[in-house]
């Protein structure tokens, strides 16, 4: 798929210097998506194109525009796809997948392509790499690791805009139950065990 290689080159120059949403993140999601596509018999060209474009706009979590990142990505992706001679139907499928993939949108994508993008992206938010990413974001936003009085959100509503560890309870531990595909669910279960193992070890260390 020469168009995929061309898109990779195009996207590489657009990615911002954000360790949680950089080109390495795109490539990890790309690999996740390839594995899921093989299991789900999906249109790999459309899925991988959506993966490559899904984070070309990524506002910081503290930015008021953060929740609209995926919508802006979808708009910008249409301009790029037209340069590579995708059909109108293909552009629509890809841009819709990008628009609806984000957690903050609270949407289940309509197409299989959208479901796979969402699963592949969410897999990179959990497991060992997910732990690394969440603390990278927390550090960039200058948030403390945890609430000293109640680190594990036993008696309060998680607020990940203030404490990094709260993001596990606000989002990460929920992702396994939100996966769309069978293969995505299997991998998410493995990675969620890593999250829970980390939290159990942390509890012992900060008692």
Can you give keywords for this protein?
mainly alpha; 0% strand; 207 residues; 10 helices; Hypothetical protein af1432
Task: Describe what you observe in this structure.
There is one protein chain. The chain has 207 residues and is an all-alpha fold. It has a single domain (2-206), classed as Hypothetical protein af1432, CATH 1.10.3210.50. The chain has helices at residues 2-12, 23-40, 44-53, 69-83, 88-100, 112-123, 127-140, 166-170, 175-178, 182-206. Helix 1 (2-12) runs parallel beside helix 3 (44-53). The chain starts with a helix and ends with a helix.
Helix content: 55-70%
* Number of separate structural domains: 1
Class by SSE composition? mainly alpha
What is the CATH architecture assignment?
Orthogonal Bundle
Shape annotation:
globular
Instruction: List the uncertain runs.
Output: none
Structure described in brief:
The protein is mainly α and 207 residues long. 61% of the residues lie in helices and 0% in strands. It has a single domain, classed as Orthogonal Bundle (Hypothetical protein af1432).
Topology:
Layout (H helix, E strand, L loop, with lengths): L1 H11 L10 H18 L3 H10 L15 H15 L4 H13 L11 H12 L3 H14 L25 H5 L4 H4 L3 H25 L1
